[in-house]
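Q: Please design a sequence for this.
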Protein backbone atom coordinates (compact mmCIF):
# COMPACT_ATOMS: atom_id res chain seq x y z
CA UNK A 1 0.00 0.00 0.00
CA UNK A 2 1.48 3.30 -1.10
CA UNK A 3 0.38 6.45 0.67
CA UNK A 4 1.49 10.03 0.25
CA UNK A 5 0.86 12.44 3.08
CA UNK A 6 0.08 16.07 2.43
CA UNK A 7 -0.04 18.70 5.06
CA UNK A 8 -3.42 20.21 5.73
CA UNK A 9 -2.02 23.49 4.40
CA UNK A 10 -1.50 21.90 0.98
CA UNK A 11 -5.03 20.53 0.72
CA UNK A 12 -8.03 22.64 1.57
CA UNK A 13 -10.77 21.28 3.80
CA UNK A 14 -13.07 21.29 0.77
CA UNK A 15 -10.59 19.32 -1.34
CA UNK A 16 -10.22 16.71 1.40
CA UNK A 17 -14.01 16.52 1.74
CA UNK A 18 -14.48 15.87 -1.99
CA UNK A 19 -11.66 13.32 -1.89
CA UNK A 20 -13.45 11.57 0.96
CA UNK A 21 -16.71 11.62 -1.01
CA UNK A 22 -14.95 9.87 -3.90
CA UNK A 23 -14.68 6.85 -1.64
CA UNK A 24 -17.85 7.14 0.45
CA UNK A 25 -20.02 7.61 -2.63
CA UNK A 26 -19.34 3.95 -3.51
CA UNK A 27 -21.94 3.19 -0.82
CA UNK A 28 -24.53 4.47 -3.31
CA UNK A 29 -24.80 0.77 -4.16
CA UNK A 30 -27.24 0.55 -1.25
CA UNK A 31 -29.52 3.00 -3.08
CA UNK A 32 -28.84 1.82 -6.63
CA UNK A 33 -28.02 -1.90 -6.40
CA UNK A 34 -26.76 -2.24 -9.96
CA UNK A 35 -23.98 0.21 -10.65
CA UNK A 36 -24.34 2.55 -7.69
CA UNK A 37 -20.86 1.70 -6.49
CA UNK A 38 -19.50 3.07 -9.80
CA UNK A 39 -21.94 5.90 -10.27
CA UNK A 40 -21.17 7.70 -6.99
CA UNK A 41 -17.38 7.91 -7.44
CA UNK A 42 -17.80 8.68 -11.15
CA UNK A 43 -20.10 11.64 -10.49
CA UNK A 44 -17.78 13.10 -7.84
CA UNK A 45 -14.76 12.55 -10.11
CA UNK A 46 -16.41 14.19 -13.12
CA UNK A 47 -17.67 17.16 -11.08
CA UNK A 48 -14.40 18.00 -9.31
CA UNK A 49 -11.48 16.45 -11.25
CA UNK A 50 -10.56 19.75 -12.90
CA UNK A 51 -10.82 21.73 -9.66
CA UNK A 52 -8.75 19.50 -7.39
CA UNK A 53 -5.88 17.16 -8.39
CA UNK A 54 -6.37 15.23 -5.12
CA UNK A 55 -10.00 14.53 -6.01
CA UNK A 56 -9.02 13.41 -9.52
CA UNK A 57 -6.47 11.01 -8.03
CA UNK A 58 -8.82 9.60 -5.40
CA UNK A 59 -11.72 9.36 -7.86
CA UNK A 60 -9.68 7.21 -10.24
CA UNK A 61 -8.46 5.12 -7.31
CA UNK A 62 -12.01 4.55 -6.07
CA UNK A 63 -13.27 3.63 -9.55
CA UNK A 64 -10.38 1.20 -10.08
CA UNK A 65 -11.14 -0.47 -6.76
CA UNK A 66 -14.84 -0.83 -7.58
CA UNK A 67 -13.99 -2.29 -11.01
CA UNK A 68 -11.57 -4.70 -9.33
CA UNK A 69 -14.26 -5.81 -6.88
CA UNK A 70 -16.61 -6.46 -9.80
CA UNK A 71 -13.96 -8.59 -11.55
CA UNK A 72 -13.29 -10.55 -8.34
CA UNK A 73 -17.02 -11.07 -7.83
CA UNK A 74 -17.49 -12.41 -11.36
CA UNK A 75 -14.57 -14.79 -10.89
CA UNK A 76 -16.00 -15.94 -7.55
CA UNK A 77 -19.39 -16.50 -9.15
CA UNK A 78 -17.77 -18.74 -11.76
CA UNK A 79 -15.91 -20.62 -9.03
CA UNK A 80 -19.14 -21.53 -7.23
CA UNK A 81 -18.96 -24.79 -9.17
CA UNK A 82 -15.99 -25.82 -7.01
CA UNK A 83 -17.46 -24.18 -3.88
CA UNK A 84 -14.49 -21.81 -3.46
CA UNK A 85 -16.59 -19.10 -5.06
CA UNK A 86 -18.99 -19.07 -2.13
CA UNK A 87 -16.19 -17.92 0.15
CA UNK A 88 -15.28 -15.15 -2.29
CA UNK A 89 -18.88 -14.01 -2.67
CA UNK A 90 -19.14 -13.80 1.10
CA UNK A 91 -15.80 -12.05 1.73
CA UNK A 92 -15.61 -9.59 -1.19
CA UNK A 93 -18.40 -7.26 0.03
CA UNK A 94 -17.02 -7.29 3.58
CA UNK A 95 -13.48 -6.52 2.42
CA UNK A 96 -14.80 -3.87 0.04
CA UNK A 97 -16.74 -2.18 2.84
CA UNK A 98 -13.74 -2.16 5.18
CA UNK A 99 -11.34 -0.74 2.60
CA UNK A 100 -13.79 1.97 1.50
CA UNK A 101 -14.11 3.12 5.11
CA UNK A 102 -10.30 3.11 5.53
CA UNK A 103 -9.82 5.00 2.25
CA UNK A 104 -12.42 7.58 3.28
CA UNK A 105 -10.70 8.21 6.59
CA UNK A 106 -7.30 8.49 4.93
CA UNK A 107 -8.58 10.87 2.24
CA UNK A 108 -10.12 13.02 4.95
CA UNK A 109 -6.64 13.22 6.49
CA UNK A 110 -5.18 14.33 3.14
CA UNK A 111 -3.58 10.99 2.27
CA UNK A 112 -3.50 9.75 -1.31
CA UNK A 113 -4.73 6.29 -0.43
CA UNK A 114 -4.03 3.26 -2.61
CA UNK A 115 -6.33 0.26 -2.20
CA UNK A 116 -4.62 -3.13 -1.99
CA UNK A 117 -5.51 -5.82 -4.56
CA UNK A 118 -6.58 -3.18 -7.08
CA UNK A 119 -6.23 -3.64 -10.81
CA UNK A 120 -5.18 -0.25 -12.21
CA UNK A 121 -7.36 -0.07 -15.32
CA UNK A 122 -8.05 3.67 -15.33
CA UNK A 123 -5.16 6.10 -15.12
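A: Design:
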Amino acid sequence: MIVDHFSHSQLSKEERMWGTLCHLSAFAIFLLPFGGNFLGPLVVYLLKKNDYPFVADQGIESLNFQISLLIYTVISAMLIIVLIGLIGLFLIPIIGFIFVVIASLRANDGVRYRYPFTIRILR
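Q: Thanks. Anything notable?
A: The mean pLDDT is 90. The radius of gyration is 15 Å.
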